[in-house]
Amino acid sequence: MTERKLRAARLSFGHGTANARDEAAWLLAHALRLSHEELSRSADRELTRHEERRVLRLSEERVRTRKPLAYLIHEAWLGDHRFYVDERVLVPRSFIAELLRERLHPWVKRPVHRALDLCTGSGCLAILVALAFPRARVDATDISRGALAVARKNVGAYRLGRRISLERADLFPAARRQYDLVVANPPYVGAAALRKLPPEYRREPRTALAGGRDGLAFVRRILDQAAAFLHPGGWLVVEAGHNRRRVEQAFPRLPFIWAETSAGDDCVFLLRREDLYNRRS
């Protein structure tokens, strides 16, 4: 019934689920306080009246407000990792998270002692970097005070306060410290695409989505400044949406490595510090 209601409402998905069926399962699991595995084993279970009311309230609120479910239940997942979210941050969905499962193999071979996460939002990538490289100290920046408050909550939940430092900054931190690894999932939605976003995406912070006229305003700034913040042999990892063609046209001299992710090979690029000196002037 919940699945049919969500499908009939012609909602847009993409904030942790790809379709009405998966979203209904997520909603039910939360409302019934079950894991997804427990829910699958309880398919024939009858709901109590209290549970029915909870499911109905959530599904009606999802349809009425067109808010992503993650905002309604203050919960988002990247792989096996749960994060608190609210409307001060994007709902986590970075493809860089997939690469961190393998610790950025085969590219990053040296130990990562210091890492930097730009546009950290909820802090999800900073946390995943810290978990992937347990000896690393991670700095994370965001221009939004609200986003940093959410990130602080998540860092505390993972008990990583001693290893992750949060700083308000417009991209790079004030101190010119050098890092073994810099990751970034910056705003990359172009102006025309931004105007056409469905209501669910317009519920997210506009400043966390808007990447300028062609979606590359922040990518350009990162490429212009990143070399100064990387150790020799250090790596830059950037998510740029499905903007591979635009990125390569804008920086034809840079030897981008495009990683294969579940979304294809046009979303996340890697560059070594030494390669960044070939950037277009």
Number of helices: 13
Q: How do the strands line up in the largest sheet?
A: 5-4-3-6-7-9-8
Unreliable spans are none
**How many strand elements?**
9
Average predicted confidence as pLDDT: 93
CATH homology-level superfamily of the largest domain: Vaccinia Virus protein VP39
Order of helices and strands: HHHHHEEHEHEHEEHHHEHEEH
By CATH reckoning, the class of the largest domain would read Alpha Beta
Number of domains: 2
> Strand fraction band?
15-25%
Overall shape: it is globular
How far is the N terminus from the C terminus? 58 Å
From the alpha carbons, calculate the radius of gyration and give it in angstroms. Answer: 20 Å
The CATH architecture of the largest domain would be: 3-Layer(aba) Sandwich
Fraction of residues in helix: 25-40%
Molecular structure report:
- It is a single chain.
- By secondary structure, the chain is of the alpha/beta class.
- It folds into two domains: 2-73, Helicase, Ruva Protein, domain 3, CATH 1.10.8; 88-276, Vaccinia Virus protein VP39 (Rossmann fold, 3-Layer(aba) Sandwich), CATH 3.40.50.150.
- It has 13 helices and nine strands.
- It has helices at 2-8, 20-31, 36-40, 49-65, 69-73, 96-100, 124-132, 145-157, 191-195, 199-202, 217-225, 244-250, 273-276; strands at 76-78, 81-83, 114-118, 137-142, 164-168, 179-184, 230-239, 257-258, 268-272.
- A seven-stranded mixed sheet has the order 5-4-3-6-7-9-8. A two-stranded antiparallel sheet has the order 1-2.
- Helix 8 (145-157) links the parallel strand 4 and strand 5 (164-168).
- Helix 1 (2-8) crosses helix 2 (20-31) and helix 2 (20-31) packs across helix 4.
- The model has no long low-confidence stretch (mean pLDDT 93).
